[in-house]
Amino acid sequence: MDSNGSGRVIPGPTNPMVTPLLTDHYQFTMAYAYWKAGKHQERAVFDLYFRKSPFGGEYTIFAGLEECVRFISNYKISEDEIHFIKDNLPDSCEDGFFDYLRGIDCSDVEVYAIAEGTVVFPKVPLMRIEGPVAVVQLLETPFVNLVNFASLVATNAARHRFVAGKSKTLLEFGLRRAQGPDGGISASKYCYIGGFDATSNVAAGRLFGIPLRGTHSHAFVSSYMGVNEIADKSLRKKDGSGTCEDFAVLVQKWLNKIKWSNSLCGIFSDTNQSELAAFTSYALAFPDNFLALVDTYDVVRSGVPNFCAVALALSDLGYKAVGIRLDSGDLAYLSCESRKFFCSIEKEFEVPDFGNMSITASNDLNEETLDALNKQGHEVDAYGIGTYLVTCYAQAALGVVFKLVEINKQPRIKLSEDVSKVSIPCKKRVYRLYGKETYPLVDIMRGENEPPPKVGERILCRHPFQESKRAYVVPQQVEELLKCYFAGSSDKKSETLPPLQDIRERCIKQLEQMRPDHMRRLNPTPYKVCVSAKLYDFIHFLWLNEAPVGELQ
Predict the structure, then answer these.
(1) Alpha-carbon distance 230 to 221, whole Å?
(2) What is the per-residue pLDDT across 473-529, written as a single tens digit (0 to 9) for each?
(3) For a disulfide at 421, which of 17, 34, 156, 416, Cβ 3.0-4.6 Å?
(4) What is the pLDDT of residues 374-414, one digit of tens each?
(5) CA distance 140 to 22
(6) H or E element, residue 470
(7) Cβ–Cβ < 8 Å for 299, 336
């Protein structure tokens, strides 16, 4: 479908399971009740937001917007789906309602959103959806579903990136432990947005253009019994000037040289020969990309010496090995010992850059283990992270909500004894105010018709519910956050959906802009989200107006 009359065709959702039926049953029962009352075409405004940042932090990465736009751009309830809905509603539902469902195409809906990949905060609308009330309610569940996990796992990835540091390579290895196929595909996509460099997930690589990484498992190593299992042991020199007829013999020569070298004599005796055969075989298959898993038998006494023998043999033929992966044991100690081994070889055999071989660590890593490794001191260059990352083990859900804030131009509020659950009424515009050091200071919500904040102007910012919490801000830069991403059949200009790489770069840049105390793992400073003085007064007027007055007997 054309998103805004500009001729741009937007493809459907990545997951074919995302259809108009991917919603809760009560959305259809409400739609019927609206239709029966003649209320279904009333113009409504809903806000999609969350109430608390995840993982004990003070920020969230907004993700999932593109999938929402793809869904709404292609929204059409098929005849089969209408028959299914009819079979699952009471017989008393009139046929005219099903004719109404046949005609729904979201052309009367508009979606305003914060750019995907932006750092966002509680209570701020991530998306504002405007349209006929019955239609927008049908969009509620799929929108919440598409944003909830996407934002949660992107935030989890960003937090892992923050602990690991900018210089480390982060690899997402979670597919086998993810919550089903969609959990795996979604996690790969949104971890990439959150700052990971590559994935092991081949399907995600194809769908989204994410770089792929992966070498071999313990099974590959233990499947070999000896070098006689390798059919062709010849390897052509990298420059094509000749061929080594028996690469395995060259590897064995280097292993003997290492064993009796001055700096490494006595560190190991006989290495595991089946492991050496596996490494030799893998190097013959991938001489330019040789990275070995070295902990199948013993890292220091077998895995690392065997890797070095193969790497040195490759070096003789003009190839450069990539490095090793550690998947068990004391990762800090083993990475340091491996690095010492590599440096000794560089020095003893005068092989330039051998000491800088890449060391990758995996094995149920999470934020805490990365932090512990940093404190212990280590030599790891890359991390392969799976289970804790893609399952969001530390927190199951973000808790995104979808609340009515206006209908027929009348502001609406949801009240609760729990103040954190009180909604902020009316159609709003959201601005991010920046201070002198280009850090974001505060996000402020204002009524739709209020003038925007101006640079250099003193602005009163109020906590939406706590009277005493207020502050003046003089912004050095003002950024409006909500932009139109779906204009329906209106003549409004909508934003172009950016490629995944741009969303990722936006996320990384946004995180770099944040003040360090908001980003801390432990006890971060809360980021201020506020409303204008005028909106504050209106919230409390509406609150008093809607809340029933008790009577004491």
Answers:
(1) 13
(2) 999 999 999 999 999 989 999 999 999 999 999 999 999 999 999 999 999 999 999
(3) 416
(4) 999 999 999 999 999 999 999 999 999 999 999 999 999 88
(5) 10
(6) strand 470-473
(7) no
d(CA 409, CA 550): 29
Strand-pairing partners, residue 193, are none
Alpha helices in 104-261 (DSSP H): 133-164, 180-193, 202-208, 218-222, 247-259
Task: Phi first, then psi: give them for residue 289, nearest 5 degrees.
Answer: -135, 40
Phi, then psi, of 531 in degrees rounded to 5: -125, 160
* Torsion sign (Cα): 233, 238, 240, 242: negative
Q: In sequence order, what are the residues at sequence separation of 6 or more whose Cβ sits closer than 8 angstroms to the Cβ of residue 550?
A: none
pLDDT band of residue 5 (cuts 50, 70, 90) is very low
φ/ψ (deg, to 5) at 305? -60, -40
- Judging by DSSP bridges, how do beta strands 119-120 and 60-61 pair with one another? antiparallel
User: For the stretch 170-208, what's the b/e string if a residue is b when 16 or more beta carbons lie within 10 angstroms of its beta carbon?
Assistant: bbbbbbebbeeeebbbbbbbbbbbbbbbbbbbeebbeeb
The percent of residues in the chain predicted with pLDDT above 90, rounded, is: 90
Show the DSSP H helices in 260-376 as ranges: 273-285, 304-316, 331-349, 367-376
Is residue 288 within 8 A of residue 319, CB to CB? The reply is: yes
* Residues, the chain: 553
Please name the amino acid found at residue 145.
N
Question: Region 129-134: what's the mean pLDDT?
Answer: 98
Distance CA 71, CA 143 (A): 9
Q: CA end-to-end span of the chain, whole Å?
A: 61
User: Which helix (H) or strand (E) is 446 found in, with range?
Assistant: strand 440-447
C-alpha span between 207 and 219 (Å, rounded)? 28
Distances in whole angstroms, Cα of residue 533 to Cα of each of 410, 450, 467, 529, 536: 20, 11, 11, 13, 5
Tokens of 130: 């405007």
Closest CA to 310 of 342, 337, 279: 279
Q: Are 248 and 230 in contact (CB under 8 A)?
A: yes
Instruction: Please state, in angstroms and rounded to a whole number, the distance separating the CA atoms of residues 463 and 469.
Output: 5
The contacts of residue 129 (CB under 8 Å, 6+ apart) are 45, 46, 48, 109, 110, 111, 112, 136, 139, 143, 402
Q: Where are the alpha helices (DSSP H) in 290-330?
A: 304-316
Residue 29 is encoded by which pair of tokens?
A: 């029962």
Q: Among 19, 1, 8, 131, which Cα is nearest to 73's?
A: 1
Residues facing residue 440 across a β-bridge = 434
* Residue written as token pair 């003046």: 472
Q: 218: closest CA among 331, 321, 303, 314? A: 303
153-210, pLDDT tens digit by residue? Answer: 999 999 999 999 999 999 999 999 999 999 999 999 999 999 999 999 999 999 999 9
